[in-house]
Structure prediction request, 212 residues.
Amino acid sequence: MDTKLCVKCGVVKEVALFGTSSRTRDGFRAMCRECTTEYERARYQKNAEERRKRAREYHYENLEKRHAYCKAYNARVRRDNPDVGKQYYQDHRDEIRATVKREADALKWETFIAYGGTCEFCGDTTFEYLQIDHVFGNPERSGNGARIAGPRLYRKLRRQGWPKKDYRLLCCNCNQTRQYYGDAIAISLGLKRKVLFAILAGLPLGSSNAKP
Ligand SMILES: [Zn+2]
Ligand SMILES: [Zn+2]
Prediction:
């Protein structure tokens, strides 16, 4: 039985435990199969970060191509396994919904804070009242003409580094007023509300019946 010394682990093994090679005199690799696998794995892991970076760069440089590819891939997966994900969703529905809601809220907070955290016209800071307003009144549209709003809009703004020229934060009161009566009236009414908020903030509200 032919044997050979592995240069890596230093063990003498049967030649069958070595890969073949056209570049060595005896036709076998210098490292045994086990050591070769280990060596390849280490090299793969060492380059993982660089590979991920390159893939990311490639993705953003070829967005259209990549989106077409992903679309086709997802369609193929759905065609071959029509029930993919359904069972998992049914088993974890509440959990998934809670996570989606939590992440959407966090993204909303991040966006509102990036845009100053207060209504630009009246200074209202009530989270539930705030919304992103398109300064020039052109709602975002995606490639197929659908309106981009909510998380999709927030993610887009974050990607663009929170552009301030075309977007601002308004409360729903000021935003509605602006849409019906125009900027000038919305701003002047907002100013009145701002004064009102300041007065209210200075008042000991409910001091007569709010005893601890
Ligand atoms: Zn070895
Ligand atoms: Zn407002």
About this structure: The chain has a mean pLDDT of 89. Residues 119, 121-122, 124, 170-171, 173-174, 190 surround zinc ion (ligand 2) (CB under 6 Å).
